[in-house]
Design a protein that fits this description.
Layout: H1 9-28, H2 31-40, E1 41-42, E2 47-48, H3 54-84, H4 90-119, H5 157-165
Antiparallel strand pairs: 1-2
Helix pairs in contact: 3-4, 3-5, 4-5
Length: 166
């Protein structure tokens, strides 16, 4: 398959550099804690504002995951339909390879997030002392203290669906 335009290297690397710079700034000044403390955590109740809520658990987490799965299955069905019936569905037939590549990319994205989570040392917010947990805060780029178990909460699993759609 021949691309219709050259690889947009400048845009791709520019967006990647901006993303990495944002992560570095958040980690260096611990802005992630400041944002979580001000916007997500209710100190009066000692709970995260969305803890146990329908919209966070069912709609965003489970619903987002299920939406990506349904989208991937529907896309694969379209690709299969295009391959099996090229005369009836010529556009799907022409785009079947692209559709399959997109679905494979979605799967690889989710898999990659899972691998990153397995080896990430970042704790989940509710595991931190500041939010009622037992673990001290360790920045993304800091060395984890010896004996402190790995947190495995970064990148967020629910964000994997967003990455897959991107």
């Amino acid at each position: 398959m021949k691309p219709t335009q050259p690889f947009p290297a400048l845009e791709t690397f520019g967006v990647s550099a901006l993303f990495l710079a944002t992560i570095a700034v958040l980690a260096f000044w611990q802005l992630d804690l400041a944002i979580a403390s001000r916007l997500a955590f209710d100190a009066a109740t000692g709970q995260f504002r969305a803890h146990g809520s329908f919209w966070a658990n069912e709609v965003l987490h489970k619903g987002g995951r299920d939406f990506v799965i349904v989208l991937a299955v529907a896309a694969l069905c379209c690709a299969l339909l295009g391959r099996l019936s090229p005369v009836r569905y010529p556009t799907l037939h022409r785009q079947a390879g692209t559709i399959i590549a997109a679905v494979v990319g979605m799967g690889l994205t989710v898999l990659l997030v899972g691998v990153f989570k397995r080896y990430s040392h970042m704790d989940c917010p509710w595991d931190l002392v500041a939010y009622g947990g037992k673990d001290p805060y360790v920045s993304l780029f800091a060395k984890r203290p010896t004996g402190l178990p790995s947190g495995g909460c970064f990148p967020a699993a629910h964000a994997a669906t967003g990455y897959a759609l991107f």
